[in-house]
Specification:
Layout: E1 4-10, E2 23-24, H1 30-41, H2 50-61, E3 74-77, E4 83-90, E5 103-109, H3 118-132, E6 137-143, H4 147-155, E7 159-160
Antiparallel strand pairs: 1-6, 1-7, 2-3, 3-4, 4-5
InterPro entries: Acyl_CoA_acyltransferase, Bact_Acetyltransf, GNAT_dom
Domain N-acetyltransferase: 20-168
Keywords: Acyltransferase, Transferase
Length: 168
């Protein structure tokens, strides 16, 4: 079993148009996000039940993990209006071993829509929204052996966060 690493990056201002339209997440998306979240992790070692996935997504909206920032949490829908990708952002993740900056809680894409740049687009959108709200940085945590996620975040100028003694 591998550990996790915390990555941090500067938020950014971009004026580019997104190749795929997105919108802000809403509470009406909870069932679709729960299903997508479950499917995204169904084959992983950390697999959960559909019920657990639903509880986690509901917990995000309820602030269980930290103050939720829906306006910095974009989703992408397919042509039928089904949510196929999402970035979920918290103002700050509860916990004592993280930077005191916004936290990318989850980023997931339906398996049938992967390798199309949606994850990168959603992270860039979230970073731009955070920049517009005055936040200078954003962080996240990933499994240290998740090479695909690490490659994505390095492309977006995330770096490993090492806490100062003052941060502990």
């Amino acid at each position: 079993m591998s550990g996790t690493i915390t990555l941090i990056a500067q938020t950014l201002e971009t004026n580019s148009t997104n190749p795929v339209p997105s919108r802000q997440v809403t509470a009406e998306d909870i069932p679709a996000l729960s299903e997508l979240y479950f499917q995204a992790y169904a084959s992983s070692p950390a697999a959960m039940s559909e019920e657990d996935a639903g509880k986690i997504i509901q917990g995000v909206f309820d602030g269980e993990y930290g103050p939720f920032l829906p306006d910095a949490s974009p989703v992408v829908e397919d042509d039928d209006g089904q949510v196929i990708a999402a970035a979920i952002v918290l103002e700050q993740r509860k916990g004592d071993d993280l930077p005191t900056v916004p936290y990318l809680f989850e980023l997931f894409t339906a398996s049938s829509h992967r390798r199309r740049g949606l994850a990168e687009q959603l992270v860039r959108e979230a970073m731009t929204k955070l920049y517009g709200q005055g936040y200078e940085e954003v962080c996240l945590r990933i499994a240290e052996d998740n090479s695909a996620a690490l490659a994505l975040y390095l492309t977006l100028d995330f770096n490993r966060w090492i806490p100062d003694n003052d941060d502990l």
